[in-house]
Design a protein that fits this description.
Layout lengths: L6 H8 L4 E6 L5 H10 L6 E4 L3 H10 L4 E4 L1 H8 L13 H8 L3 H15 L19 H19 L9 H10 L8 E4 L7 H8 L6 E6 L14 H4 L4 E5 L1 E6 H14 L7 E3 L14 E5 L2 H12 L7 E3 L9 H10 L9 H4 L4 H11 L2 H13 L3 H11 L9 E5 H4 L4 E6 L15 H11 L2 E6 L2 H9 L27 H23 L12 H28 L1
Parallel strand pairs: 1-5, 1-6, 2-3, 2-4, 4-5, 7-8, 9-11, 9-12, 10-11, 12-13
Helix pairs in contact: 1-2, 4-8, 5-6, 6-7, 11-19, 12-16, 12-17, 13-16, 15-16, 17-22, 21-22
Length: 555
Amino acid sequence: MTRNNTQEQQAVIDSDANLLAVDAFAGTGKTSTLVKYAEARPSQRILYIAFNKSVAAEAKERFPENVDCRTTHSLAYAAVGRKFAEKLGNAQPYMVAQAFKCNTKRAKLALEAVSSWLCSIDAEITLDHINQDEVQDPIEADALVNLARNVWERMQDPRSDLKMPHDGYLKLWAMGQPRLRYDIILLDEAQDTNPITLDLVMSQQGHAKIVLVGDRHQGIYGFRKAMNAMEAVEAQERVALTQSFRFAQGIADVATALLQAFKGEDRCVKGRSDISVKWSIDYRKHYAIIGRTNAGLFSAAANVVMGRRERRLHFVGGFDSYLFGKVLDAYYLWADERARIKDATIARFQNFHDFKQYGDEAGDAEVKALVKTVEQYRMDVPVIYNAMRAAETPVQDRADITLTTGHRAKGLEWDQVMVADDFIELPPGEDDFDEEEVNLLYVGVTRAIESILLPGSLREWLESTGFDFNQQSECEQSETKALPHADVAQSEELRRLITERALLAEAITDAAQMCGLFDSKASVPDFNQLQQLIHELGRECLRANLMRAEAQYAG
């Protein structure tokens, strides 16, 4: 069924700007808008630059024939990369160590410098590309620059066994300042582009119109040296797509609250009016669990496999593509089995206490999640790992539950979503918090279509602002609506939830008393104590289920 264009979409389609920026919020139909933009210009030669190969292939099926759907790597491969076809891949530290007679640590740091430089617009590798946190000695830093330059020279040598990375031939091609023979260039996911790609696209302005499309609030790849072109470029014209065709208005209101409070956004996300949000999920039906970290996802999956019902799990990208091995390694550190640790970063800690202390002091979300998971499940960690693997199905349609991280969830959607509790705590403890952490939470929330279970921190923060879970906001009617004040009376729905929580807490403590796990004279337990009681009550059930899963996996 074809729907009419919104005024926002029509503004994009009708734009004649030489440099147009399209701020497309989650689920607002950016690709379909670009398709219509291209259809309105049948005589123009258009290049659509996709984020990855699979997106480019899908776009090819949707765009008209006058549009060439490519990735920058496919363009670079045709021009330069094919001559390295026999040696393409990622060079490993041990390869560099063997080739240059250095230790593995120096080899790793040199490769990181090369990788940082490849994504930049810099002409040569310098001290700016060295990891300053790892190398403070100026003499050692200079030596690493020289090593990195030599590594890059060896990568370019067709007679060398040292692999040429895909970003390597992209760099070589871009440094040649190629002229792209198109009338219009559409750069998708511009909020997560790398500097060299943006520079390449912007250099075509003399002969081609440029359209940058993305959501600045979905920039989540800063750790890969990505930059947010939606914020970096001064466009001739800027159009926002705020009407989502994915989710209910209540979910749009949560997204708006997040972005206005922590990202300085002044626009509202508008949701669908034909469906209503549900703030819970039906566990009898398929749902997705989205975690911030691999450890957080492990913990969420553990809660599933410890239940009485056998559930089939689908991991987006496959079970082995997740770093669940890090949870095992953190467990081995806790269990003082250091010889079994495979991850070099974890292996450098002498004991679990130091590992935990580092996570707290550095504010490292992944390390803190690993510590929390190991301390929660302790001796059961290896058995849970095997149970998760045994429950995996590679086909999502056969799964009861889909599991993924915020990064991998981007671009996907499900009717029901549970957002795990390992996302950023709200409000953030410091003023200089990492905005990409808010972006990840925004991505997680906006994957849900109709039913969503919010993480505790987000829900509690929303409640503190007076967010009404019973009624939708007036955001779709006013672009300047402010959040209600904290002293607004709680709705009937919130009062019902509070009552139900109290009854649930009473039931948990009653069951714990019967098992001798809770002293009836003790004070009312807080949330963390209740959570611990639940885990203690379910431990025997967990062990029985895990033994059955192990037997199934062994068979």
